[in-house]
Amino acid sequence: MSAAYAFLREQLADYGRRWPDEHGVAADFLALLDDPADPFVRERLEGHLTGGAWLVSADGRRTLLTHHRKLDRWLQLGGHADGDTDMARVALKEAEEESGLPDLSVEGSIFDLDRHWIPERKDVPGHWHYDVRYIVRASGNEDYVVSEESLALAWREIAPMAEDADESLSRMARKWLARSARP
What we know:
Elements: H1 3-18, H2 23-34, E1 48-56, E2 62-68, E3 74-80, H3 87-99, E4 104-118, E5 127-138, E6 150-157, H4 158-161, H5 167-181
Parallel strand pairs: 1-5
Antiparallel strand pairs: 1-3, 2-3, 2-6, 4-5
Helix pairs in contact: 1-2
């Protein structure tokens, strides 16, 4: 097992301890790493890893969401690992590419895990994304640039999302608000 696999395994196990209600989700991700097929490449259609960015404004009150072109839904930024085994780096790279924002940084270890179905599209059959999500912080200019992957981008207040968003975004908003409330 490579050092990157071992580090990700450690982060996933730690996530399961920090979020005991999500222990089963962490176990699903660990099982994916135990499978002999490479989980870091999109060609693994049984499911593969993606890196997600909960991109937060410098003041911590807003998150940048994308109106995803292919899925036609508002989501956090992120994308395929494409062979990179450092999921935090994947999340940061995707946030930079999809937002055009400079001076972004990853904070802490895994923030959220989400396994979700991606429907069939053209010649790619439906498959599972195992999204490993990190907090990515904007520290400078917040004037984003819409990439070809998005129909639009928008800064959204986090607090209302805790109750008024899809389950995945609501869960991340609740986690962020709980984290921000700690001394």
